[in-house]
């Protein structure tokens, strides 16, 4: 389970990953493309990892796209932030465009959206989801348009 939030050029995520009753306390969910586009992924770990590797590999080869699962959902979803353009979310049905200043995806989305609505930063929105939703956890990781490398807010 995951929470990813975006506001003001910063994308943040929790870093915990769950497989049944097993918790992996440190999983990467964010990447910056060589063109500066920010990506956050939630959902199936293997599919999410393949997408992040494709981004970090310079968009070479076949792009791993979300697929429809047996229950009709996407196996993973991608939040995309590109400087000067509307936020987008890619899922198995294509892309949705958001014209607001912030967005959140993942299981912790409701808590994060509430925090973002009240003016919180992307980091604080993730911290709120971690504090109030049992399937979000770990330190908050961030990437931004300005910083060259991912940082962690322990």
- Oligomerization state of this entry? single chain
Number of helices: 3
How helix-rich are the residues, as a percent range?
A: 10-25%
List the uncertain runs: none
Describe this structure in words.
With 154 residues, the protein is an alpha+beta fold. The protein has helices at 45-56, 109-117, 122-132, and strands at 4-7, 10-13, 17-19, 22-24, 30-32, 38-43, 76-81, 87-91, 94-98, 102-105, 140-144, 151-153. A hairpin with a 5-residue loop joins β5 (30-32) and β6. The model has no long low-confidence stretch (mean pLDDT 90).
Descriptive tags:
154 residues, alpha+beta, globular
Show the helix and strand layout:
Elements: E1 4-7, E2 10-13, E3 17-19, E4 22-24, E5 30-32, E6 38-43, H1 45-56, E7 76-81, E8 87-91, E9 94-98, E10 102-105, H2 109-117, H3 122-132, E11 140-144, E12 151-153
Antiparallel strand pairs: 1-2, 1-10, 2-11, 3-4, 5-6, 6-7, 7-8, 8-9, 11-12
Helix pairs in contact: 2-3
What's the short story on this structure?
The protein is α+β, with helices and mostly antiparallel strands and 154 residues long.
